[in-house]
Amino acid sequence: MQVSPQTLTERLDVLPAAVMGQLFAEVYARVQAQEPPALPHPLDAASIEKITEAFISSVRGIYGSNVWTLNQRVMRLRLVV
After folding, report:
1. How far apart are CA 33 and CA 37, in angstroms?
2. Which pLDDT score is estimated for 42?
3. N or C, fewer C-beta in 10 Å, the chain?
4. What pLDDT, on the 0 to 100 scale, is given for residue 51?
5. CB 12 within 8 A of CB 20
6. Mean pLDDT of 43-65
7. What are the domain boundaries of the chain?
8. pTM as predicted
């Protein structure tokens, strides 16, 4: 059975408080029983270093002469972080 959100709200509005409380308790128990979503793994300093080096290597291959300037900017950014 499919019910529109508006119809569902109207039907829930007329439920007695005891029934609504029981329904809430059942839904809450189901939600608590579910596994929480996996959080992305935070990047550590070593991962950031590898990503930075890979980026610099790719830029070096494209721009060549601007690598020194880019490397200096990256070094300044590392000091800020």
Report:
1. 12
2. 75
3. N
4. 84
5. yes
6. 75
7. 45-80
8. 0.37
Tokens 């990047």 locate to 43
DSSP assignments along 13-45, one per residue: HTS-HHHHHHHHHHHHHHHHHSPPPPPPPPP-H
Matching residue, tokens 């189901």: 30
**Is residue 66 left, alpha or beta, with left meaning phi > 0 and alpha meaning psi from -120 to 50?**
alpha
Residue of 60, 40, 63 whose CA lies nearest to 52: 60
Distance linking the first and last C-alpha atoms of the chain: 54
In the predicted model, what is the mean pLDDT of residues 14-36?
86
Answer yes or no: is pLDDT of 65 > 60. no
At residue 26, what is the residue type?
E
Q: What is the longest distance spanned by two Cα atoms in the chain?
A: 75
Residue type, 58: S
